[in-house]
Amino acid sequence: MPDSRARVRRLAASRLLSMTGTDASGVAIGFAMYSQTGSAAWLSLSLLLTIGAGAVMGPLGGWLGDRVPRRPLMIGAELAAAALFAAIALVHTPAALLAFGLAGTAIGAVFGPAAGAAIAELAGPRDLAWANGLVASTSNVGKTVGRLGGGVLIALAGTSAVFVFDALTFLASAALIWSVRAPFGGAVRSAATAVARRGGMTFALRHPRIRLILVSACASTFATAFTMTAEVPLVFELGGDAIALGALTACWGLGMVAGSWHAGRVLHAGNEATGVLAGRLVMAVAIGLVGVTGALVPALLCYVLGGIGGGFMGVAAQSLVLRETPDELRARALGTIDACRNVAFGVGVVGAGVAVDPLGPLTIYVVVGVACLLGCLPVAALVRSLGGVRPLRAPGAAPAV
After folding, report:
1. Low-confidence spans in the chain with pLDDT less than 50
2. CA-to-CA distance for 103 and 125, rounded, in angstroms?
3. Whole-number Å distance between alpha carbons of 93 and 96
4. Which of 85, 251, 264, 359 has its CA 20 to 30 A from that of 149?
5. What is the pLDDT of residue 59?
């Protein structure tokens, strides 16, 4: 068990590094594209193309994560990402940024499902929630640091420096994954197993528990696409500036870190469905309260609360899905969920472009809060099918990090 936890910690460290660079580059790509074009249309086009590529590549990436040994696949993906961002540092015209963005999405679609599925193989059933919580919390730390640090690095050294930094983080991440000398799973175990199972997409859609999580995730992702579109108008509505916008994003990220960290200490096989429901309820209430409070400081506090709910829910949902899925289908099941969420998000972004201006940001947040509450209904049905609400506490002493 100590060895398995040490391996999970190395994987978590690799996610911390690569997510820091990735989110810093996300800031740099948006800054570079807008500064060169002066048009929000380019930003929207980039977002929609990225979402579309993620929806298409998700199932394919999941298929690779199950049919190819995951450890070399993950190392190869990180090395490819390092080469990609080194190239962006040299050439970052708007057209190049679009092309490189699509390539980066394809690489992420390969890496993400394989990494998520590998957690279960490395940690084992007993430590699964702890491992998911650790990897999620370190990833969220990376995202928060990357978003805040990306802007600082752009101001100090320009966008090319951010892309070089991102390439280095991917190289370091690949080295950490290479240092984990243990099976990550991923190869089909037998021809009979491959024939008996039709695939991760069919499995996820037909499995009664995973299907309920998928429906709830898509409903919530569709709704929160509206709030992401409304964030900038919200800040101006509440009298804030660019610093306030950065603080809003950082508050959600800090909440995600706290929520995922806590989830790893209290969740286990018996209460993960309750954890999904509790996290979604907290997130829904927090989002709705942003529109009700109508002031900047309470909105920041609501974002922290919403992030806590989102981080807690994410660990619970992934742990439950991994427990319900055999190893030879785990990456495909995760890839299917990612693809469906990308589609829901894309539809939400299009809808938000029509709805935010006439309704106003405060109304949007209230409506989204109500919609997220409705998205809790499938999870409530899941909890009921498993015997009802369970206490959100560890059965024994929480494992040390």
Report:
1. 190-197, 397-401
2. 34
3. 5
4. 264
5. 76
Which structure tokens are listed for 224? 């929160």
The model's pTM is 0.81
pLDDT score at 172: 94
- What does the H/E/C string look like for 121-183? HHHCCCCHHHHHHHHHHHHHHHHHHHHHHHHHHHHHHCHHHHHHHHHHHHHHHHHHHHHCCCC
Phi, psi angle pair for 387, to nearest 5° = 105, 5
pLDDT score, position 192: 41
* Three-class DSSP category at 199: coil
The closest of 147, 139, 66, 61 to 105, measured between CA atoms, is: 61
pLDDT of res. 352: 79
Distance CA 25, CA 194 (A): 39
CA distance 224 to 247: 18
Q: How many CA atoms lie within 13 A of 268 on its CB side?
A: 14
b/e 357-396 (16+ beta carbons within 10 angstroms → b) = eebebbebbbbbbebbbebbebbbbbbeebeeeeebebee
Q: How far is CA 65 from CA 61, 112, 300, in A?
A: 6, 9, 38
Cα–Cα nearest to 272, from 400, 385, 389: 389
